[in-house]
Amino acid sequence: MRNLILSAAFAGLSLLGLNAQAENIEAGRQYEELSNPVPVSQPGKIEVVELFWYGCPHCYQFEPTLNPWIKTLPADVNFVRIPALFGGIWDVHGQLFITLESMGVEQRVHDAVFNAIHNEKRKLATAEEMAEFLAAHGIDKSKFLSTFNSFAVKGQMAKAKKLAVAYQISGVPVLIVGGKYRFDIRSSGGPQETLQVADFLIQKERSAN
């Protein structure tokens, strides 16, 4: 009985803590509301978009916090990664991500790509270098190169560039919820706080629907 009472007390305190956090989350402080909402990719679901770059150290450092959270998302939330394409090596790495996604192997090697750039100091600046690296992870070189240079991948890159403009982003990593709300680690106050803002906005969208 005593354990049950303590459990209920702790649950109540946790709920109060969450409510207190929510009360402190405001538009214009932790997040910005877009003046022109962007349509989501799966109507009927609450979309969370992360714009990132494989070469970004902040994106790499965010991964250990972000990835476990993604696994806990309920069925009505659709998480999407989009590469930020600001030209040069950003576009090259973005093309790599879109290629891996098109091949259905992105989840298999996503962490390995980040690790190669940030820990192994590989530049992965050419398709050939990427193909050699990925071959060691079981990705067929010829298939990768043909997909990398395909019209479909280039079409997805053009779409990603348009979305970045529509989201009005100027850096990464940045999250967008529901095509309406933009925020990042700096505005939120840290990696964990960023996910608290995301949870708040997901619930806001859920309540609105």
What is the CATH class designation of one domain? Alpha Beta
Taken from the alpha-carbon principal axes, the silhouette is globular
CATH architecture of one domain: 3-Layer(aba) Sandwich
Overall pLDDT, averaged?
A: 92
Name of the CATH superfamily of one domain: Glutaredoxin
Rg, Cα atoms, Å: 19 Å
Give the strand order of the largest sheet, numbering strands 1, 2, ... along the chain.
1-5-4-2-3
The H-and-E topology, N to C, reads as HEEHEHHHHHEEHH
CATH topology of one domain: Glutaredoxin
Task: State the gist of this model.
With 209 residues, this protein is of the alpha+beta class. It has a domain at 89-177: Glutaredoxin.
Explain what you see.
There is one protein chain. This protein has 209 residues and is an alpha+beta fold. It has a domain at 89-177: Glutaredoxin. It contains nine helices and five strands. It has a five-stranded mixed β-sheet, with helices on both faces. Helix 2 links the parallel strand 2 and strand 3 (77-83). Helix 3 packs antiparallel against helix 4, helix 3 (89-103) crosses helix 7 and helix 5 (127-135) runs antiparallel to helix 6 (141-148). It is globular. The model is unreliable at 1-18 (pLDDT under 50).
